[in-house]
Amino acid sequence: DTLWQLDSLEIQTALVLPISHGLISLADSFEEIKTVYSHPQALAQCQGWLEKFLPQVQQIPDNSTTEALRHLGKDRSAAAIASQRAAQLYKLPTLAYPINDYPDNYTRFWVLKEGCTEIDNSDLKLIINGINKPGSSVFISLGFSVPENVPGALVKPLEVFAKRGINMSRIESRPTKLSLGDYLFFIDIEANSNDNSVKAAIEEFKAYTNVLKIFGSYSIMTIN
Fold this sequence. Notes:
By secondary structure, the chain is of the alpha/beta class. The protein has helices at 2-5, 40-45, 47-53, 65-69, 84-89, 155-163, 197-206, and strands at residues 9-18, 22-25, 35-38, 58-61, 78-82, 94-96, 106-114, 137-145, 167-175, 183-192, 211-218, 220-222. It has 7 helices and 12 strands.
């Protein structure tokens, strides 16, 4: 939503980090813990572990895993689910690690910079900004709206990529909050710097949209 609203932001790169949660607490044992704080997603990712080792505790959702640590203070009956790095920053002890149910989960963060994202018919060069290594794979993130109440309004633009063999790795919709049933769509496509069909695909894609914005073309870096 923020990227759609602020045309000054552009994705520079994406960082993929493994999800490794720990149980952070001043308690000496599990028996002392009465409440566990964390972001709802972190609580869900550790649900199996919590049911096995802390079945009686009260789980309280918070805005983030970092904010959850602020509840600990001097309360030995409280715990938080967060990363070991966050625990180190707040100088808090880790009681158990790792506690996430699946070891191969990852989360993605975008590194943003200032740049123009909305395009018109005369300017499509943003598509290849950042595609500067021959043969390298990059991802391009797009946001768009489609005409209302038109059959095939979403299918037709997406077929543009399919017929050119361009892989779409993500799609999601967000309500515009302007009227019922009015949505914005966000997609990621995977391209190769040697593939000259990307620019033509975007040009054709734009013809099926009301508004099209390119949030950036970027590579993905995995951090272990």
